[in-house]
Amino acid sequence: MKQGKKKMKAETFNQQEKGIVWMMVDTAANMPVTIYSESLGVKAPEACYRSAVWAQDSTRLIGEEYLLNAKRSSLEMGMPMGVFHYSSSIGVKGCLSNRILKEENAEEHGETIKLPKYLPLKESLGSVIRSRRSVREMGKTPLTMEQLSSLLYYGDGPSGRFDFNTFNNMPPTATLGEEYIGTVRCSPSGGGLYPITLYFVAFNVKGLERGVYTYLPLTHSIQLIRRLSERDLEDYNRISNFGINIENDTLGIAVYYVYSLYDNSRKYGDMAMQFAYIEAGEIAENIQLTAAGLNLAATDIGGYEKGLTEDFLGLDGLTRHIVHLTLIGTKK
Ligand SMILES: Cc1cc2nc3c(=O)[nH]c(=O)nc-3n(C[C@H](O)[C@H](O)[C@H](O)COP(=O)(O)O)c2cc1C
Fold first, then answer.
1. Residue 226: inside a domain
2. Which residue's CA lies nearest to atom 6 of ligand 1?
3. Is residue 218 domain-shared with residue 291, that is, in the same domain?
4. Residue 80 belongs to a domain
5. What CA–CA distances, in Å, run from 124 to 99, 128, 131, 242, 275?
6. Phi-psi region of 208 (alpha: psi -120 to 50; beta: other; left: phi over 0)
7. How many folded domains does the chain comprise?
8. Which atom of ligand 1 is nearest to the CA of 133?
9. Which of these, 208, 209, 204, 297, lies nearest to 249 by C-alpha position?
10. Residues lining ligand 1, Cβ inside 6 A
11. 134 CA from centroid of ligand 1 (Å)
12. Which domain does 272 fall in, by range?
């Protein structure tokens, strides 16, 4: 729509424009004059009531508290010490390079399902980026295992190797082997710590039992957390009302981005949470673009019940938190 100045009669203005202009003026006028309004004694009306509506315990939003306290000064030693410790400690690197053992162990106990190879994405990157849209109306055709594999692989799958021993020059040991190798993935992560784990609820994937699963990227497998009965589905629908245009019985999968605070906060301190949100976004965008490239329907969702869904997925909500959600299905 072309915008610009336009002459009109007062009558037309009153009928057509006044309502929306009034709302915009009202919104703008009620923005706090400054984030320091509390200490300066300047308070716009909205700041007087928002503590009751939005913020907890004060007139500040949690986000304001965080931003005002993040990176206060380079004299704060927490983060540099954490980073130094991680860069110099061979113990830390040993742990990171051995992460794959955890997944292999799960595999040996027969709890995992190996995913088929991901599909090639043939469209050009430019056209996929341009064509991506949030698609909320989905069809009832199930997703295939190859599509599931591709969404998880391009989202957060393994795509390279990284030698942790470059600077330390440690000799080979029986415990760590010849090389101290870690795996890097399709999405970037601060320090290669990968604090985001993908959980997903599979509703309609051909050849896969309905259930809650987690993605094991290093072995490109999935692990069943629990099967879902009809009763469980009812529970899910009760806690998951995603709004108009989204019908739960058309969903293929719901991908939850789960943040393990202690996976990266030991290194990054207060910056860790910021990194986690960024990283969830990076994975989510890869998943969105993969969905677009495979002609699937996908939409990100902020409107989920965090605590109740954590219960549903079997997360404690203390060390592991849902930070984002993407719904995916076939197109209508
Ligand atoms: C963090 C985030 C949260 C979102 N939450 C919702 C949501 O709860 N419900 C919804 O229908 N769409 C949601 N969306 C999708 C946006 O509405 C959508 O991306 C936006 O309208 C732009 O449209 P597009 O994705 O088609 O380009 C969300 C997107 C993001 C990135």
1. yes
2. 301
3. yes
4. no
5. 34, 6, 11, 32, 29
6. beta
7. 2
8. 26
9. 204
10. 133-134, 136, 243, 299-303
11. 7
12. 113-158+187-330
